Amino acid sequence: MRNPAHDVQEEKQPEPVDYFSSTHPLRKAATEVAYRARKRMFDYFRRVMPVTPGATVLDVGVTPDRSLKDSNFFEQFYPYKDKITATSIEDASFLEKQYPGLRFIQTGGLELPFADKTFDIVFCSAVLEHVGDRASQKIFIDELLRVSRHFFITTPNRQFPVEMHTFLPLLHWLPQPAHQAVLRKLGMNFWASTENLNLLSPGTFLKLFPGQAAVKLHQHRLLGLPSNLIGYGSIKDDFQNNQAQ
């Protein structure tokens, strides 16, 4: 016999956030492009990060989406699934069954429930642009660096001519208030909120990293143009001590 209270709980479960504009007519083609691009970014990750069978990895920002080919691409490609801890503000616990040995922990807000330097590597792809204003983005970067020894963080490049969440060209080059006003007129209220979309150029991206981080910038290219920014490197031993002061 079904428990009515259980039914109520099921009804209260929030719908997954559609960060992919999954119903857009260009989504299918964009997913194919994104899959190939993310495979190349992962190949770059393997070249610059200390990937070994014993290295522990934190993937921040996995998605509950199971319909798109490029969703949770890191889990698809990373060879040592049992060394991955995956986190998200959404429930992606199915990953534990899909990739035996992986551990999923649902988190909320900007803080991560891990001690300093818990992980050898933190990987975070296409999350930074969704955490809020510049102050929130800086807090988020600091938190990623706090829990790891090496970091690999990606975000779309605001200077690329097409904004890949809305699929609109050039409008995102307007000052942010003007860009958001146009999005609201087009009925794209979700993307018109800084909390949901706050794009970064190379300069603003690098300014988010603290001085103690030995960060390098790589610009991934699509059709010859830099479409994604990758900040990667290692954390100096005194970073956590300075954070605590």
CATH first level: Alpha Beta
In CATH, the architecture is 3-Layer(aba) Sandwich
Shape: globular
Q: Please give the alpha-carbon distance between the first and last residues.
A: 56 Å
What is this structure, in a nutshell?
By secondary structure, the protein is of the alpha/beta class.
Explain the overall architecture.
The protein is of the alpha/beta class. It has a single domain (19-244), classed as 3-Layer(aba) Sandwich (Rossmann fold), CATH 3.40.50.150. The chain has eight helices and nine strands. It has helices at residues 4-12, 27-48, 73-77, 95-98, 134-146, 176-185, 202-207, 239-244, and strands at 57-60, 84-88, 103-106, 119-125, 148-156, 162-163, 168-169, 213-222, 225-235. The strands form two sheets. It has a seven-stranded mixed beta sheet with strand order 3-2-1-4-5-9-8. Strands 6-7 form a two-stranded antiparallel ribbon.
List the helices and strands and how they pair.
Layout: H1 4-12, H2 27-48, E1 57-60, H3 73-77, E2 84-88, H4 95-98, E3 103-106, E4 119-125, H5 134-146, E5 148-156, E6 162-163, E7 168-169, H6 176-185, H7 202-207, E8 213-222, E9 225-235, H8 239-244
Parallel strand pairs: 1-2, 1-4, 2-3, 4-5
Antiparallel strand pairs: 5-9, 6-7, 8-9
List keywords for this structure.
two-stranded antiparallel sheet, globular, 245 residues, alpha/beta, seven-stranded mixed sheet, disordered C terminus, 9 strands, 22% strand, Rossmann fold
